[in-house]
Q: What sequence folds into this?
């Protein structure tokens, strides 16, 4: 069997287009502020892409770049200024932050109603309690991709490998909210293969290239590979690199559906960020959530 592709590029483009259409229906322009501290090369690419996609969708995009040695208090002060800025509907602080800055303290400074990353305690609590809030972008994108293969997850078994606050934990809650029976696995899980083979939906969010192989996959399962790992690619030439997921490509011989890396969950992250920003903007204006978003 060769898995069908869950195309995050195509679905991401649809989600971004819908966010752009919904933004047009709101009074005033929707504004997104992104804070980048330091020079992490991958983060610089992601922030550039966020700026480009936000503008392409008709949003106002404000990028704040701070040097790596910026004191934590100055990052928090910037977040507080953005909280008070009427032109800003959504705030995102790009992760990872440089050593010496406590990410949780910076996140805690974000107004929960502008927290388009869904990482504040308030939004994490809302997700846990099943209340309306802002949901982290990568887990949201993973659910949209899984939904292409399995529109109804009721009674399905799901295994999430990884327990980060950015992906693993919120993704497990979203799967549970969609009536799946969820197991969370991690580095201390005994017999990871046996646990993973129970999954109708297998989600890998660990950041370890090729951690899961064909042996971890139940025949026909939906495999959502959240890992985006840059590895050496000597076959492409000296010093060249490539992106690979947490799931080895041969797993596609067993899976029914699988996300590629690149082109799977990654593009959904920015698409869902635009979606969250438009949702936040509508709610801040006291309006209903836009239809069709
Ligand atoms: N505050 C946050 N920081 C980080 C998040 C996040 O959701 N919030 N997620 C990641 C990085 N990220 C967005 O910030 C991100 C990662 C990957 C992609 C993407 O489109 N990947 C492409 C490949 C791009 C490339 O060539 O490098 C793909 O997978 O096809 C978008 C956004 C960590 N930080």
A:
């Amino acid at each position: 069997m060769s898995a069908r592709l869950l195309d995050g590029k195509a679905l991401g483009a649809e989600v971004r287009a819908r966010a752009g259409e919904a933004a047009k229906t709101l009074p005033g322009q929707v504004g997104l502020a992104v804070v980048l501290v330091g020079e992490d090369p991958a983060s610089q690419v992601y922030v550039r892409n966020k700026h480009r996609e936000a503008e392409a969708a008709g949003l106002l995009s404000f990028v704040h770049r701070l040097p790596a040695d910026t004191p934590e208090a100055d990052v928090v002060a910037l977040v507080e200024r953005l909280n008070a800025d009427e032109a800003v509907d959504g705030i995102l602080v790009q992760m990872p932050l440089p050593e010496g800055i406590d990410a949780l303290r910076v996140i805690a400074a974000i107004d929960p109603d502008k927290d388009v990353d869904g990482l504040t305690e308030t939004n994490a609590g809302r997700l846990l309690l099943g209340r309306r809030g802002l949901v982290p972008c990568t887990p949201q994108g993973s659910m949209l991709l899984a939904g292409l293969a399995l529109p109804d997850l009721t009674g399905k078994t799901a295994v999430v490998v990884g327990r980060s606050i950015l992906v693993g934990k919120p993704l497990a809650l979203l799967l549970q909210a969609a009536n799946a029976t969820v197991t969370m696995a991690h580095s201390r899980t005994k017999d990871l293969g046996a646990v993973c083979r129970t999954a109708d939906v297998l989600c890998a969010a660990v950041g370890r290239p090729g951690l899961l192989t064909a042996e971890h996959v139940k025949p026909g399962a939906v495999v959502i590979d959240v890992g985006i790992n840059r590895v050496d690619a000597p076959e492409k030439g000296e010093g060249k690199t490539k992106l690979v997921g947490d799931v080895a490509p041969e797993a596609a011989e067993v899976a029914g559906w699988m996300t590629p890396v690149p082109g799977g969950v990654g593009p959904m992250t920015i698409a869902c960020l635009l979606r969250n920003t438009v949702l936040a903007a509508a709610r801040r204006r006291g309006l209903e959530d836009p239809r069709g978003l």
